[in-house]
Amino acid sequence: MRFASTTDTLDSTLTLPMSSGEYTIPAIDAKTGLILKERMAAFEGAARRINAGEDAEAVNAEIVKEHGITVEELQNLGEMSLGKELRDQMLDDGITFRELELAEMTAFLFHTVSDSGEAAEAYWKSGGKAPKPNRAQRRTETQTQQGAGTTTKKPASQTGTKPKAAASKKAASSGKKSSATGTTSKQTSKSTTA
User: Fold this and answer.
1) What is the CA radius of gyration of the chain?
2) How many whole angstroms separate alpha carbon 103 and alpha carbon 22?
3) Gap between the Cα atoms of 105 and 39, Å rounded
4) How far apart are CA 157 and CA 136, in angstroms?
5) In this predicted model, what pLDDT tens digit does every residue of 37-81 receive, in sequence order?
6) Residue 161 Cα to chain centre, angstroms
7) SS3 annotation, the chain
């Protein structure tokens, strides 16, 4: 068996229309991609902790220390996401600072979020506002924060069978062992045998 080439199956470039023209963000090498993914995981973890009420400055300081992120590296994330040549070309073409920030973060999301570019596109279309998680993502985050527990009771059987509690009470009144308690109750009627 032979698979199709990754050049045929992977769409790893992104084209952004800007005031000075269109720019195609090239695919990044695996080493850069791994660094960006690691940073994205650190940023997501920090955001969850801050959203849960922890002090933002303390969390950010801890993340920077824990992951060895330097100020220089944070400044270079945009360049890593766009590629040095493309970033330099954008600067030479005179794009605005806001356009540069938008392009850098869009590229960062494109390279780090495995959703076929949906998060990057939403960020781009919003003009740089953070994309809101969809309903399923919010539900997953809530379950993760609550230990994946649920308080919703399952619906009763739809097959016409009696719930176990009712069956246990009936068994108890006839002197049979209750599966719920494992005890035998007193028989309420006497049987007569000849």
Assistant:
1) 30
2) 11
3) 13
4) 27
5) 988 888 888 889 999 999 988 988 888 888 877 777 777 888 999
6) 40
7) CCCCCHHHHCCCCEEEEECCEEEEECCCCHHHHHHHHHHHHHHHHHHHHHHCCCCHHHHHHHHHHHHCCCHHHHHHHHHHHHCHHHHHHHHHCCCCHHHHHHHHHHHHHHHHCCCCCHHHHHHHHCCCCCCCCCHHHHHHHHHHHCCCCCCCCCCCCCCCCCCHHHHHHHHHHCCCECCCCCCECCCCCCCCCC
Quote the crossing angle between the two packed helices 30-51 and 97-112, to the nearest 10°: 100
Distance in angstroms (rounded) separating the CA atoms of residues 172 and 178: 6
108 within 8 A of 40, measured Cβ to Cβ: yes
pTM above 0.70, yes or no: no
Task: Band the pLDDT of 85: cuts 50, 70, 90.
Answer: very high
Distance separating alpha carbons of residues 186 and 42, to the nearest angstrom:
63
Mean pLDDT in the chain? 76
Which has more confidence, 158 or 90? 90
**Residue type at position 186:** K
